[in-house]
Design brief:
With 340 residues, the protein is an alpha/beta fold. The protein has a single domain (3-319), classed as Purple Acid Phosphatase, chain A, domain 2 (4-Layer Sandwich), CATH 3.60.21.10. Helix content is 31%, strand content 18%. It has helices at residues 3-20, 28-42, 66-76, 98-111, 126-129, 134-142, 146-155, 185-189, 203-210, 235-244; strands at residues 48-49, 56-59, 84-87, 116-118, 164-167, 171-174, 212-213, 222-224, 231-233, 249-252, 261-266, 272-277, 290-295, 301-306, 312-313, 318-319. β13 and β14 (301-306) form a beta hairpin. The longest helix has 18 residues, at 3-20. The protein is globular. It starts with a helix and ends in a 21-residue tail after the last strand. Its cofactor is Mn(2+). It catalyses: O-phospho-L-threonyl-[protein] + H2O = L-threonyl-[protein] + phosphate; O-phospho-L-seryl-[protein] + H2O = L-seryl-[protein] + phosphate. InterPro entries: Calcineurin-like_PHP, Metallo-depent_PP-like, PP1_catalytic_subunit, Ser/Thr-sp_prot-phosphatase.
Length: 340
């Protein structure tokens, strides 16, 4: 069976399950073949995916919400030269259809490898998704014998996922964010991600997938996170990181947003240094909206917001990021701090 036939077979089974509610996966050997093909495609990408060009749909956390993933693909179309996709991680856990979400994305990567980029979130670690629902889903849906085997096959693909990407207009994209350990792009480029199967294997990988932007006082650049992993990074830290690496802004996921997205770090001139996008509507019953960001080839951004029924929510906000000016003072939430 050629690669495209195998991927299309899985996609057909997933699409059939939309109506029946019953996902009928092929045997474990065939499932393993799919995971192997997926890993072979990911091995061709660097840990930091660069030189991306074209128009992108940026998708935040999905957390097993296949309905929202399918809504996004149906609206914008399959990955192609005219519409490319960047997914920011957290594909599994907490939702009811993590299997569909992750297998569907594996298939899209196999079929359209140049037009879709998948990076790793903090839930793409065995230690996380064993605790927060994915293992339980595999067992409850596939049985106590087969469930753990499929769970392991999928988990074995996680270390192959890149950790960050750079979109047109030098927009840095990551699941969580930066930290005191992440100062240059080489810090990311030099990670041997294929060996990272748990948090302790790489502090930088942990920080990239667990970090959160926060306004911090007294010129603090970073501080420990109350999550227990990763760091909180301030506007000052974001500005320094972006300036030093000739980047314009950070787009990340990792946190639910009531409106589907939010401006996470903004300087005193209103320049957005960090945005959060979250793409799972009604996450854990919170009745939040979901969103995706449409980033064009010049770096211009528009926002598509939708609810749990897939109904569009009007959003007229558009953005374009510019060069970072280190001389701008930071907002009153932080004390004045001169970086130069």
């Amino acid at each position: 069976m050629v690669n495209s036939d195998l991927a299309n077979k899985f996609i057909s089974l997933i699409e059939e399950s939309i109506d029946t509610g019953d996902l009928k996966l092929p045997n474990n050997a065939t499932m393993n073949d799919l995971c192997t093909l997926f890993k072979e495609q990911l091995k061709l990408e660097n840990t930091l995916v660069e030189n991306l060009h074209g128009n992108f749909i940026v998708v935040g956390d999905l957390h097993g919400n296949f309905q929202d993933l399918y809504h996004i693909i149906t609206k914008y179309g399959l990955p192609s030269s005219s519409v490319k996709y960047l997914f920011l991680g957290d594909y599994v856990d907490r939702g009811e259809k993590s299997l569909e979400v992750y297998i569907y994305l594996m298939c899209l990567k196999i079929l359209y490898p140049k037009f879709i980029t998948l990076i790793r979130g903090n839930h793409e670690y065995t230690i996380t998704c064993k605790e927060y629902g994915f293992l339980d889903e595999c067992i409850s849906r596939l049985g106590v014998m087969r469930g753990p085997a499929v769970f392991k096959m999928i988990n074995d693909t996680f270390p192959y996922l890149p950790l960050a990407a750079i979109l047109p207009n030098k927009i840095f994209c990551v699941h969580g964010g930066i930290s005191s350990n992440v100062n240059t792009l080489d810090d990311i480029r030099n990670i041997n991600r294929f060996e990272i199967d748990t948090w302790g294997k790489s502090v930088i990988a942990t920080d990239l997938t667990w970090g959160d932007p926060r306004y911090l006082k007294n010129g603090v650049m970073t501080e420990s996170s109350d999550r227990g992993l990763g760091e909180r990074y301030s506007l000052a830290k974001a500005k320094r990181f972006l300036y030093d690496n000739e980047l314009t802004s950070i787009i990340r996921a990792h946190e639910v947003c009531e409106g589907g997205w939010e401006k996470s770090l903004v300087d005193c001139k209103g320049n957005i240094l960090c945005m959060t996008v979250f793409s799972a509507a009604n996450y854990c019953g919170l009745e939040n909206h979901a969103s995706v960001l449409a980033v064009d080839n010049t770096g211009g951004i528009s926002i598509d917001v939708f609810d749990s029924n897939g109904d569009e929510i009007r959003c007229n906000d558009t953005f374009e990021f510019g060069p970072i000016d280190l001389n701008l003072l930071i907002p009153p939430e932080e004390e004045i701090y001169l970086l130069l």
